[in-house]
Every structure is written in C-alpha cells, then in structure tokens.
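Risk register update: the risk of archive-format incompatibility is retired. Evidence:
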Amino acid sequence: MLRTAVLALLLTIAAAPARAQEAPSDLPDTPVARVFRAWLRAVNSGDSALAHEQALRYEAENPSDPASVLQATRRLLQIGRQSGGFSVEGWQAASPEAMDLVIRNRLGMRLAMHIAVARVGEDWRMADIGLRPAGPPLGQQAGPAPAQGGPPAPDSLPRGLSESALADSVAARLTGRSAAGQFDGAVLLARLDGTALLRRAWGLADRRTNAPNTPETAFALASTGKMFTSIAVAQLVERGRIALDSPLIRYVPDYPNQDFARRATIRHLLSHTSGLGHYWGPEFAARRRTLLRPADHLPLFANNPPSFSPGERFQYSNAGFMVLGLVIERVSGMSYYDYIQRNVFDRAGMRHTGYYPATGGTPAGVALGYAADGPGGPLVPNDTMRELRGGPAGGGYSTVDDMLRFAQALMDGRLVRRETLAQWTSGQSDNGRTGFGFMVLGERRARAFGHNGGAPGMGTWFLVYPEQGLVAVTLTNRDPNLVGWIQRPLMWALAAR
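Archived output:
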C-alpha cells in the first residue's frame, strides 16, 4: 500500500472544486517526473476517466483487479476534491526514480511531497508517495497561508494562543465537526507531566448500540503501532542481542529470499530503506483470517524481488516491519505479542492497549471502526477489512491516556536509554523525515517525533514535542482523513509557539 493514509491525513480540508494546474515545464524527462505529471493531471482535473487511467497504469495495487483499480480511482478523485488542486512551487530530483517537490493546494497550504517509482516488467509504477506539511517560505510566519485572493483555511488556529486557549480552540472546532457528523474520536493535548490541557471524546464508538466514545475508549492504531516494534528492536540492540548493521540472515537464516537476507540489514528495515514494500492485495484479503503471526505474512511478499537494492533509497514499507517482528521473535524466544506486552505495554503502564483476538471480533471498550463505502457513501463497519490481530507493521488498539503513558515512558528512560531514543528519533532516511520507526518533524522548539496511521475506519496521530514538554494524540474510528484537518493546524500552532 502506498502511503495513502498520510495523503488522506494531510489533504483533508474544506472541499473546493479543483482548478487544473500544469506541471512546470522544466521538470526532467525521467520516469518519476512522467508519473508525477500524470498524477497532477489526474488529481487536478477531477475527471473520472483520467483518474481511472492513472490508477490502472500507475497506482492500483493490483491493476488486474477491478476493485483495486476502483479504490485507487476513488482515492485520486477524493484528493482532488478535498485539496482543490495543486500547483508546484519547487522540485528536486534525487534520481530518475525519486524526487521531492513543494506543492501548494488551493487554500494556500504548502506541502512537501516525496514520490518514487519502480520498474514492474516493462512499465514504471508508483512505489511510494507521501506528503507532509512543508511550512512557510522563508521569512513568513508558520501556518497555512491563505490562497491568493481567497480566505484562510477554515480550520487554521490562531497564533500566539496560550496552552489552555489553544486547547479550547481545538475543542470548539471538534465539537462543531462532530455536530455536523464529521468527527468521531478522542483527542488529548497534555504536558509530559500528565497535566491534560484537552482530554475529550466525540461521536459514537458503536453505531449499532449508540454507545458513545469517551476519553477511555480504545481506538485502532494502524501504522502508529510501528513504534512498538521499533522500540522492541531498540531494547534488543541495547542488550547486545541485535546489531543494527548485521544482515537479516543472521537472525532469520531460513528467510525465503536468501540473497535479500544477506544484503538487507536491521538498519535498512528500521529506516524503510530495505527495498521491501507492502503485502496488501487480493492474496492478503483471501488469507486474512489465517494471518496470525509475523511468519504467516511471509508468503505474501518474501519471495518477491525487492524494489531496489537495500540502502539505495527510502520506500515506506509495511513488509519490512513485519520482518522485524519475526526478528524479535527469533532473538527473544517469545511471540511478538508476548514480547511487546511484557517489555513495552507493561513497562509503560499501558493497561488498555493490546492486539485484537486471533478469533476475530472487537474487544469490549474498543471502538468499532466505520469506513465510508466510497466517496460520500454510507458508513460500514471495518471489522472485516482490517488486519485480524494487528502486529509489527501496525494495528492493535490504544487509548489517548495510554499513548500519553507511552510518551512518558519513552522520555523518562523506562523503555530505552535516552541516547537510544535520540538516535531512533533523529533523521535516518527520507531526507531526514524518518527515524527508526518514527516520523521526525520540525526543529528546535518545533521539533516533534511520533507516528501517524490510517486505514479504512481508523486514523491516528501521535506526536511528542520534547522542547515544549507536550504530547498531542488524535484517534478516530472513522476514515483517516478526519484526523488530519485538526492535527495539522495543531502542529502548526505548536510550531509557532
């Protein structure tokens, strides 16, 4: 799966009709630039035929599967509607297969875009696409800029607010969104000492019974759970059980692709530079109920050649983190789930965090996820779509309070040594934007680390601001686009403090 969750989180704004913008004439004639031109044309046009062509040719996980093509087509059309279209401010080509751009949507929001392609047979296809807030041009105040001649983004937050005023402003916006049926979930803004500035929930945890969400409700975590895998590896590195630059084959000698296992290191897997991609697709859907352990996932990807040589470049990878879960099991002699429970959740006091039962179902106290059945479509439960248990690549569930406890345990050294945390949350790849299983954002007082996540019927943001002593957590049991519109302006407001 491409980083579609990141796209949805960062692009969700007030809907506006797309305005077509041409790609700059000076873009190089390279595979990645050609794919980007086609992406921009499809997104900005709002044309279903162009979006379908882009999905079929470049983006669908399985272009021979009509459902996969339809999903990718809908995603492109949704991005175009919600962004209002994009223009390009600047670009830099890392290679013929990868480039970074700064783009601006119709409401004036600047986004840093990374796009990469990979050869599949005789064709080039999208291998990775991600968007993050780019911040303002030099000399301007942080925050989303208004569109030329237009109003500011409707969900921007005032600058210079005190902590309590900022919390009140966020709560007011959430209350309005929830009343309009546009948000279900929980939000926490707290100091690292545990003082809650905002701790509230909105909407429904279960639409069948009208059970409300509360601050104690647990929500599915999606890729935010990668941090638990990352910290488990860090612990084993500290104990001398794992070496960052040792090859995978040292820990998993029976890995199916022996050549890959000899060349890929733990560092590559942690930093999303191994060349592995994802395991979503028709085979995953067909085998979903049997995927109960990390090893069960290997047939979905391990025999496929990597997209590139390990260490060559960045490509966000769920498969890589699933392999790390297998490494944890082999080195520790414990199941992945037992290791994480004992060495992460128990140590941090996360009593309401866990993984879904192998028999299926949603535990008591955990919100049932609801996904839109197509753009503007009815909400349907996601319990037959998500990973059955969750695991090393993400999944499981937690509460806003437990995620605060996780942040506190990270910062006070209960989980790993402070110097280890500093290494894990510093830029290791993706132009310094990705650490070892953590996102890395901002500088100085605006510096933050954490992770986001999203899939149908679940969306998460978790960020720790060490210099400000603050933690921000947003969890929803709706589609991930519903968290970006509040977490994004909150990030900018905190960055401007």
